[in-house]
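Researcher: Please predict.
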Amino acid sequence: MRDEDLRPVRPYPAELEERLEHRGRHLVLRPIRPQDTPRHRQFLARVAPRDLYMRFFTGMREVPEPDLAHFTHIDYEREMAFIAEVADGAEAGDILGVARACTGADQRVAEFAVLVRSDLKRQGLGTLLMHKLIRYCRERGIRELRGSILMENAAMLALARSLGFLVRSGERNVEEVVLDLAAATPAAPGAPLA
């Protein structure tokens, strides 16, 4: 057994929960939990196959069950996934989007991904989630946030640029985006993380 297998698991970071209003809807931005698996399945069912392809770089109609468990049962020490969840009303508990970051062993660089329900695209949810993720990564001392985006995903490339990411040509039809968290202007200046 390796030392890293013996380290204690970080408990659910409730202090990172944040309530806000976005476009007339009351939301909770919070870390994902294992109990979110059924709701995350419902969220992914409302993402169009084309949008799943843009996120996962492979064609699929639905996310396989083992992957779904991996997305909701996370190690908060090495990764974070923030969900935007409806806070009240008939849709209370519905997941509208998710932004995640995973670090390597040194926790200096994190890879990110973001996905918003297809019927809610271009309403600022991706930006909202990314601002929270960037603040979190910066406060954790992560120095660089990276992502891979298909060249045809113009909306995601535009979002990355608007957040200060540098776009570098990657392999074939993929662009690599990088944000230097130590040098970049903080996302949503003055906004508290929790």
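Model: The CA atoms of residues 81 and 100 lie 4 Å apart.
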